[in-house]
Structures are given as C-alpha cells and as structure tokens.
Design a protein that fits this description.
The chain is an alpha+beta fold. 28% of the residues lie in helices and 42% in strands. Strands 1, 2, 3 and 4 form a 4-stranded antiparallel β-sheet that branches. The relative contact order is 0.18.
Length: 83
C-alpha cells in the first residue's frame, strides 16, 4: 500500500506540471453511521490541465491526504492529526 501511495504521488507530480492557473484545495471530514466515533478528514486538490494533443482544458482533482480519527474530532485532535 505504501508503494502504491508513493507511485500515486509520482504520477501526480508529473500531472501538476501542466496546471493552467492555480490549484484550489478543499477539506472535509467524513463520518460513518456504522462505525461510531470514527472520522476521516480529507484534503483534495482541484486544478485545470491543458491537454496539448487536443488543445483543450480538462478539470482534474486528486486526494492528497486522509487520516482516521477515533473519538471526537475537536480542533485539538484535528490539529494533532494534520500537523
């Protein structure tokens, strides 16, 4: 799994070379009704890539990080997990 994650970021770095404009970020915390007190904060990047062969633009996104927090997702627990 670790190697797959490293490969994912290698490909992502190559893809980010063709970004047109800025990269935007979104964050969210996912919770599950079936698994109480488990929360998963995520960070996602969004950008537009130029496709040179067709001279067109394509919206793209990538999951940058996710973590599992057990218990309450307070500001302190989020800061501890992210930092």
């Amino acid at each position: 799994i670790i190697q797959a994650w490293k490969d994912y970021f290698t490909i992502l770095k190559i893809d980010l070379v063709s970004v047109v404009g800025d990269i935007s970020f979104t964050a969210n915390i996912w919770s599950s009704d079936s698994c109480l007190w488990t929360h998963i904060p995520t960070l996602t990047a969004h950008w537009i890539t130029e496709i040179l062969q067709s001279q067109s633009l394509q919206p793209r996104l990538a999951l940058l990080t996710f973590h599992c927090i057990h218990g309450r997702h307070t500001g302190l627990s989020l800061a501890h997990t992210i930092l």
